[in-house]
Design brief:
CATH superfamily of the largest domain: DNA Cyclobutane Dipyrimidine Photolyase, subunit A, domain 3
Oligomer: single chain
Structural class: mainly alpha
Order of helices and strands: EHEHEHEHEHHHHHHHHHHHHHHHH
CATH architecture of the largest domain: Orthogonal Bundle
Helix content: 40-55%
Shape: globular
Number of domains: 3
Number of strands: 5
Strand content: 5-15%
Radius of gyration: 24 Å
Distance between the termini: 45 Å
Length: 491
């Protein structure tokens, strides 16, 4: 440490998916070291071979970076943004500023690239301090008795719970030492996404650390105690809606765990289990980097799916004729988010009723979800398709009518997102083709005009799906395929 009156050492805090001040191990370490802090975010979208962000994620990222810069300025600092490959951007910053240390929280997607960058920096005598701050536990430490990765959730969860203790809270710094001069930065305005599609996103969400903490407080105080009974009802607002805040690290998973255990005790366990699923998918991605496009079970490469742009577009545009499916897809398009139960329903419908490859669904969700995350998106799509981990019974086909009647019995969710069906009676809201002519007339519904007829007969589609699963051999042993170089276009 330099003595008083001499220029302080400079350290770069490299932000990625950890856009927060509180419970940020890398930032806390830099503040404790007493160095002058240069907070940096590197926009590598389109500048490397890494998959490009989807549109909804780009919108969220832009807003979240604005919020981060605002909170940094409040404690005497600011956010520096660079564009390009991380290696080149960091080299340039080190040369320009004379910084001798880099602090960062590890990413678990793209870990190989991070490791190479860190080793190269250390080889040129840059002190690099790394921290695990965005998941419950390092995947290298939660392994089976034979040292492999878990492929079934329950034993994974049991092992994780036996090992996990939330770390002590790291308060947000009240002040950061600033450098004598600031390096150049890309204007944050250039990273903003604003058009007719993103306008409703702004009405639905408040990106940034303050929004995340407010959402957690509301969930802990008003919802978490009843989460187990309300979580599957899409019309009741019984979920946390924390997923996009977690995806960008605006709040730490440890803080969520601590607050929920403190406020609701054992009633928090059903939601904590969902945090466990988040870790489980991340661990799958660690062991199987091609999770987003290649089936984990090799036999599923032969699944007889079809590429049909017409029915795919009907699914994307909420025109399948099945109200619970269309309501979910419209909620996704208008808000960048979809209720978890409905995600399972629309996923099953795409893959098993329409026999469209699950990768097309993964790609659509990647582009339209504000909480798009490579581990969660890939892991969950593989689960619903039956080709991933813990997917038994992988041949289960959700009935969209029965699912709607069970989880949206009064049709409130459908009516909210499909107002063209709002005046149909409860008994036919999930199958409008069974409404009488008088009921349709009273509701102002003209099937095939104001609302589409079903694109497929579910009963027949279910039989076709079961035959497809039989074709690949339901008795075949599930064997993970070997990762290969991705062949499809990113984004």
């Amino acid at each position: 440490m330099t003595s008083s009156g001499i220029k302080k050492a400079l350290g770069i805090v490299w932000f990625r998916h950890d856009l927060r001040l509180a419970d940020n191990a890398a930032l806390a370490a830099a503040a404790k070291a007493g160095v002058a802090v240069i907070p940096v975010f590197i926009d590598q979208d389109g500048h490397t071979s890494a998959r490009r962000l989807g549109g909804a994620s780009r919108w969220w990222r832009g807003r979240s970076l604005l919020a981060l810069d605002e909170t940094l300025r409040a404690i005497g600092c600011r956010l520096i943004v660079r564009q390009g490959a991380p290696d080149e951007a960091l080299d340039s910053l080190l040369t320009e500023t004379g910084a001798t240390a880099i602090y960062c929280n590890l990413r678990r997607d793209g870990m190989a690239n991070d490791t190479a960058t860190i080793m190269r920096l250390r080889a040129r005598s840059v002190a690099v301090e790394t921290f695990d701050a965005n998941y419950l536990h390092d995947p290298l430490h939660v392994r089976t008795a034979t040292g492999g990765g878990f492929k079934v959730f329950t034993p994974f969860w049991n092992r994780l719970r036996s090992m996990y203790q939330p770390p002590s809270e790291l308060p947000a710094p009240k002040r950061l030492n600033a450098p004598g001069s600031w390096p150049k930065s890309v204007p944050l305005d250039s990273l903003q996404v604003a058009d007719h599609w993103t306008h409703p996103l702004a009405q639905s969400w408040h990106p940034g650390e303050a929004g995340a903490r407010a959402r957690l407080a509301y969930f802990a105080d008003e919802i978490a105690g009843d989460y187990q009974t309300q979580r599957d009802r899409p019309g009741r607002g019984g979920t946390s809606r924390l997923s996009p805040h977690l995806a960008w690290g605006e709040i730490s998973v440890h803080e969520i765990w601590r607050q929920l255990v403190h406020k609701v005790g054992d009633q928090a366990l059903p939601f904590l289990r969902e945090l466990g699923w988040r870790d489980f998918n991340m661990h799958l991605l660690h062991d199987f980097p091609n999770l987003s496009w290649q089936p984990m079970q090799a036999k599923f490469a032969a699944f007889p799916s079809r590429e049909d742009k017409t029915v795919l577009r009907a699914w994307q545009r909420a025109q399948t004729g099945y109200p619970i499916v269309d309501a979910g897809m419209r909620q996704l398009w208008q808000t960048g988010w979809m209720h978890n139960r409905v995600r399972m329903i629309v996923g099953s419908f795409l893959v098993k009723d329409l026999l469209i490859p699950w990768q097309r669904g993964e790609e659509w969700f990647w582009d339209t979800l504000v909480d798009a995350d490579p581990a969660q998106n890939g892991g969950n799509w593989q689960w619903i398709a039956g080709c991933g981990a813990d997917a038994a019974p992988f041949f289960r086909v959700f009935n969209p009518v029965l699912q709607g009647e069970k989880f949206d019995p009064k049709g409130g969710y459908v009516r909210e997102w499909l107002p063209e069906l709002a005046r149909l009676p409860d008994g036919v809201i999930h199958q409008p083709w069974k409404a009488t002519a008088a009921q349709q007339a009273d509701a102002g519904v003209k099937l095939g005009e104001t609302y589409p007829l079903p694109v497929v007969d579910h009963a027949k589609a279910r039989q076709a799906a079961l035959a497809a699963y039989q074709q690949i051999g339901t008795a075949a042993q599930a064997t993970p395929s070997q990762p290969t170089t991705p062949m499809r276009k990113n984004g």
